[in-house]
Sequence to fold (571 residues):
Amino acid sequence: ASEAKASVSRFAFTPIPTHTDSTVHVPEGYNWKILTSWGDPLIEGAEAFNDETGGSAASSDKVFGENTDGMENFVYQGKQLLAINHEFATRKLNLPLNEEGIPKSAEDVLKLQNLQGASVIEVEDSENGWQIVKGSRFNRRITHNTPMKLAGPAVGHPLMQTAADPAGVQSLGTFNNCGSGKTPWGTYLTCEENFNGYFGETDAAPVARLDGVDAGYKRYGLSKDGWGYEYHKFDERFDTAKNPNEPHRMGWIVEIDPTDPTSTPVKHTALGRFKHENAEAVLAPDRRVVVYMGDDERGEFMYRFVSNGVYTPGQSTDGLLDDGILYVAKFNDDLTGEWLPLTPQSTGMDAAEILIFSRLAGSAVGATTMDRPEWISTNPNEVEAYCCLTNNKNRGVKPNAGGDDTSVNGPNPRETNNYGQIVRWRPHNEDHASDTFDWDLYVMAGNPTVHDGPNAGSDNIHAGNMFNSPDGMAFDENGLVWIQTDGNDSNEGDFAGMGNNQMLVGDPVSGEIARFMTGPNGCEVTGLTWSADRRSMFVGIQHPGGNWPDGGKLPRSSVIVIKRDDDGVIG
Ligand code: FEO
Ligand code: CA
Ligand code: CA
Ligand code: CA
Fold:
């Protein structure tokens, strides 16, 4: 702690206190505005937002979707294109006239399907601040029904075949799009997380299942009733009695070209199937593409893909993300670690099964069970990467769904981990494609005002910067790391003094961490990108409570823009 305090702060703001109210707070000298909210019209023919009904089904694929999450900015022909995820639909808000928001018709289901997925919007800074460019040809909605191409080694495998797509080569829609990434060639990576919740099983005569399907359902959390979306009752694609392989076509990393509104998104099976958080793509010194990925479930793993081919600017990138090796992380207690390749030799599974059931492959090689790996980000100034391990109430309590041991281990050192931590690793030889690394914990969140010992947190946590459940994370170009939280905002007990969910910024060198923003109560803060000139920061406010931001009947997840009053660069 003394070392952190002795250094000169690199932060260009005075840290703010916690808040427990229903608005956004930023430091003195900064301001914020809404860019866009759930239900805002995007595409020709869209109706204005209606907070009695949550909008019509007919208009639902023409408006900004709900529950904004990962986002990236793409500069193309002088225009700025934001690609933004819509992770899930809060049923009670999207179907406010239905009891408990339970869908009662195919139309209700279609509306939910349309309000999730992703959006591409062209934005510009005008006299009235940042706005969506109305009528831009780039504005696009991608939903649970948008045609996608399947690519990579799992394509065509019997586990990928369905009645509607007997060849197993194309699928409809992208699901539970949580974190995001950006390729070196300027495309968007959207990451499918809790896809299991959309499926259920009716009492239709069951179609025979291939070997391994039931074990896969168990490991990935497929259930007969699903999570209340009721898709399976009105859209048989989601009825696992009739379409047992449909869930295998979700849980992937999807590449979208935001510069071509007619392009077909591609699901890259070589990057594995699990509950993806984000996808952090970086180049190795030899220009192979390295993609780091977390699997956000208690006791699941961290992964890395390394391409066989190399990226050469100006040349085709077709197939680059479809040919390579998927690895899983093993952390040793002596602060070293290694990437274990998932191959037929190491796992006893065939090449496609390794990808479709990556979790089972990870268990087979003895990967380290983690405390819910969320976003991974790489430092632009150093060859190092950080991963938010958000929390894990099951650590040391019960094994993961595959029966793997979850006793405390090196980077996951606390039982019933309420607070979360950020692990950092430095690949050997300054090469993200190296198979070995050294690791340490950048921060252990905690509460030094109510605990002594490990639950007080690491030395860089004090009463003035407490938080829990780090989730979103992104480095800026100066090498500061921005940390967003999705945790307990009760502000009591173990969480007393932490207030609402928030965004902090960390100095990787000194360890200093300071609070930059707090969100309205009930929300999580997730998704972060910058304008091309870095004078504006776009931040996602997901599932706010109350009636934020416009005081209407329904709270609306929104993207906000933060600027400095003097219009200086942020970060
Ligand atoms: Fe959708 Fe793991 O957060
Ligand atoms: Ca997240
Ligand atoms: Ca989370
Ligand atoms: Ca979320």
Remarks:
- Residues 1-6 have pLDDT under 50 and may be disordered.
